[in-house]
Amino acid sequence: MKKTMNPRLMLIAAMAIFGTLAPFVRKIGVSSGELALYRAILAAVLIGLFLLVTGQRIPFARIRKGAPLLLVSGMAMGFNWILLFEAYKYTTVSVATLSYYFAPVIVMVVCPLLFREKLTGRQILCFAAATAGLVMITGAGMKGEGTDLIGILFGLGAAVLYATVILLNKFIRNVEGIHRTFLQFIAAIAVLLPYVIFTGGFTLGTLDPAGWLSLLLVGLVHSGIAYCLYFSALKELPGQKAAILSYIDPLVAVIISVTVLDEKITLLQIIGGVLILGFTLWNEIAPEPKNQLKA
């Protein structure tokens, strides 16, 4: 059977979709926890249908040992979304996104400790440069509006949870990426449902038509469709090429922030963002690249 879409185009499309998430999130007038729950539900339904239509069965017998890790990673994924959505509320999309993309740097530093790998000179340089970039973004945020620093901290908190998901996935074996993500969505629903019930309940009735449309887009397009494209492309692309194309996401987010949302970004923050994205990308395209889960 012939492929219906070039894997490179699928990954580009997925990354571009991820990069346009924030403007739609801002139009949905519910709490970040409630939005994260709805995103998980809609995405799980769509991915479940995709697996059913394509005949991809989930190997439940092989994942029993990894079930606790799937539960924890799903929990981390759900609360990662909550913190990222909160970051969008307190600072610009570009600053929130650049703070969030410090996650690969965290993974870079923690991996040698967990897997007894040697921290190379290249990785040390990448960590130092990316950290300097984060300091620039944070410093500029402290000089801006009072809420900017809060947004940056939420973004960094989301980055820590994003890194946690990536690291936990390294311990979950014998499960394909899209199967793993589907089960993590189910785990996220199981955790977020009681969280929402005990922290304000459900407020879907307050949404206007624009809010409803944005919610459907975030759940079905930015999550369900984008994840299906993402993992379908990863099966066909070399690791380095996938790593390079994955940086379309933050670049699109910054462009949307400046051009569509008319948000300001300082020269210092631009330099900081270039340091974070540039040096983490340089590390990603090392001789032994790592496929990472998109959150």
Description of the molecule:
The protein is mainly α and 295 residues long. The protein has helices at 7-19, 21-25, 32-53, 67-90, 93-100, 103-115, 121-143, 148-169, 177-198, 209-234, 239-245, 248-260, 267-284. The chain has one domain. The chain has 13 helices and no strands. It is globular. It starts with 6 loop residues before the first helix and ends in an 11-residue tail after the last helix.
Q: Structural class, judged by helices and strands?
A: mainly alpha
| Quaternary | single chain
What is the approximate shape? globular
Major sheet attributes: none
Which regions are unreliable across 5 or more consecutive residues at pLDDT < 50?
288-292
Rg, please? Answer: 18 Å
**What is the helix fraction of residues, given as a range?**
over 70%
Binned strand content? under 5%
Distance between the termini: 31 Å
Count every beta strand, where a strand is a DSSP E run of 2 or more residues: 0
Helical segment count: 13
Count of domain modules: 1
Task: Summarize model confidence as the mean pLDDT.
Answer: 87
- N-to-C SSE series? HHHHHHHHHHHHH
List the topology elements.
Elements: H1 7-19, H2 21-25, H3 32-53, H4 67-90, H5 93-100, H6 103-115, H7 121-143, H8 148-169, H9 177-198, H10 209-234, H11 239-245, H12 248-260, H13 267-284
